[in-house]
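Inverse folding, one chain.
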C-alpha cells in the first residue's frame, strides 16, 4: 500500500503489525521507517531515508557500467582523483563512505530524460553551476538529500581548485544555496517528556543513566556510548575526544559534571570501561544504542522522542536560561555560532515577546466587561 510520501509504502507483517519502508524500486535499498505516520518525525525519517538511498550506489546498472574507467577531465574523473587524495583519506571512514556514495550516484544520472549522456561524462569545462542545480533539484522533495549532494560536490571542487592541485579554476557548487528543510528535524523533548521518561525509568536504571548522560552532557549518540568513569578527572570534569572528525581534526572536550549527573552515576550500575553496556556487558555501538534507547522511549509512551532530541532539549534549556552562543558552542562542541544561533534566536524571541506584550494591551476593550458579567450568556 502506497501512502502520502513518495516511495514510502506500508507493509503488514505476519503478526498484523504495520511497517513502513522507503524504496525506490529494483537496484535500490529498502529502508525501514520507524517513526509514527502523521508526525514531523515521520517526515524527517523519510528525508533521512531518501538521503541514505541517494548515497547508496544504483545496483540496477550492470557492474561493468559502474566500474568503467572514467574519461579524462570529466566530472567522474575529477571525483576519482579526489578519492585518491590525502585530504579524502583523512576523513572519517563513515564520511568517506557516504560522500563517495553520494558522488557515485550523481555521476551515474543522465543529464536529462532526452539525453543518455551521464553527468560523470560531462567535461569539467561544461560542468557548471546549472548542472549542480539540476542535481540538487532532483532531490527537492527531500531537502537533506539535496543539500548532501551540493555539499559533496562543493568539497570536490574546493579540493580540485587548490594551488597544489590546480585541476579547475572555479567551484560550480560554491554559490548554490541549500534548500530549506521542511521541519525542525528530530523532535526536541519538553521538560514534561523528560519527567515522563524519568518516571517510567527511575534513577538506578540503565535507561535513566542514558537519559542523564544525553541531557546533562549534551554529547552526541556516537560519544555517549564511549563515556566511562575513567574519563572523569580529579577536578570533577569529564574529558573525552569527540568521535566526529577524529580522523581529520581531533577535538578534546572538557565538561564539568553537574551535581545531578554525579548523583545519577553514583546510583547506577556501570560497565567496566563505559557507563552504558549491552545485556552482554559489551559497549554499545552508536546505532545499537539508538535502537535500544528508541525502545525505552516507546515503553514510556514517547514514540516521537529520540536520543538526538535530548541533545536539542539541552541546548534549548540552556539558551532559555540565558546561555550565549559561545557558551552553547563550548557545551555542545559546535565550531560555528551558526548552530548555536538557532537556539539563542528562539530564546530571545520568547524573552522579547514576554517583555513587549504589554505594548498591545488596550486596557478595557469595549464589550468585554459586559460579556464576562453576563450570567445568562
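Residues assigned per position:
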Amino acid at each position: 500500500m502506497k501512502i502520502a510520501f513518495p516511495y514510502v509504502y506500508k507493509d503488514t507483517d505476519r503478526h498484523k503489525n504495520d511497517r513502513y519502508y522507503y524504496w525506490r524500486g529494483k537496484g535500490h535499498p529498502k529502508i525501514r521507517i520507524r517513526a509514527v505516520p502523521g508526525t514531523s518525525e515521520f517526515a524527517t525519517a523519510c528525508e533521512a531515508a531518501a538521503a541514505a538511498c541517494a548515497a547508496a550506489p544504483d545496483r540496477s546498472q550492470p557492474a561493468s557500467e559502474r566500474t568503467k574507467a572514467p574519461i579524462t577531465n570529466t566530472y567522474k574523473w575529477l571525483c576519482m582523483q579526489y578519492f585518491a587524495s590525502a585530504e579524502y583519506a583523512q576523513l572519517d571512514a563513515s564520511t568517506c563512505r557516504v560522500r563517495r556514495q553520494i558522488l557515485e550516484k550523481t555521476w551515474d544520472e543522465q543529464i536529462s530524460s532526452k539525453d543518455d549522456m551521464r553527468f560523470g561524462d560531462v567535461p569539467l569545462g561544461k560542468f557548471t553551476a546549472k548542472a549542480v542545480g539540476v542535481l540538487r533539484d532532483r532531490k527537492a522533495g527531500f531537502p537533506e538529500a539535496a543539500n548532501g549532494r551540493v555539499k559533496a560536490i562543493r568539497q570536490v571542487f574546493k579540493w580540485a581548485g587548490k594551488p597544489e592541485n590546480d585541476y579547475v579554476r572555479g567551484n560550480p557548487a560554491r554559490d548554490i544555496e541549500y534548500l530549506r528543510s521542511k521541519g525542525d528535524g528530530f523532535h526536541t523533548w519538553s521538560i514534561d517528556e523528560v519527567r515522563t521518561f524519568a518516571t517510567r525509568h527511575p534513577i538506578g536504571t540503565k535507561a535513566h543513566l542514558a537519559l542523564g548522560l544525553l541531557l546533562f552532557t549534551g554529547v552526541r549518540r556516537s560519544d555517549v556510548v564511549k563515556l566511562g568513569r575513567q574519563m572523569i578527572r580529579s577536578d570533577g570534569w569529564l574529558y573525552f575526544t569527540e568521535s566526529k572528525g577524529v580522523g581529520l581534526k581531533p577535538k578534546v572536550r572538557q565538561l564539568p559534571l553537574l551535581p545531578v549527573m554525579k548523583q545519577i552515576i553514583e546510583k547506577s550500575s556501570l560497565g567496566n570501561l563505559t557507563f552504558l553496556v549491552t545485556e552482554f556487558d559489551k559497549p554499545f555501538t552508536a546505532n545499537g544504542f539508538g535502537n535500544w534507547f528508541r525502545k525505552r522511549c516507546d515503553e514510556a509512551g514517547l514514540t516521537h522522542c529520540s536520543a538526538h532530541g535530548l541533545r536539542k532539549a539541552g541546548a534549548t534549556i540552556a539558551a532559555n536560561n540565558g546561555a550565549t552562543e559561545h557558551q552553547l558552542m563550548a557545551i555542545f562542541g559546535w565550531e560555528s555560532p551558526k548552530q548555536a544561533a538557532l537556539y539563542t534566536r528562539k530564546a530571545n524571541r520568547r524573552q522579547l515577546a514576554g517583555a513587549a506584550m504589554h505594548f498591545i494591551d488596550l486596557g478595557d476593550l469595549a464589550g468585554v466587561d459586559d460579556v464576562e458579567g453576563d450570567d445568562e450568556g
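Confidence is low (pLDDT under 50) at residues 371-377. The chain is about 45% helix and 10% strand.
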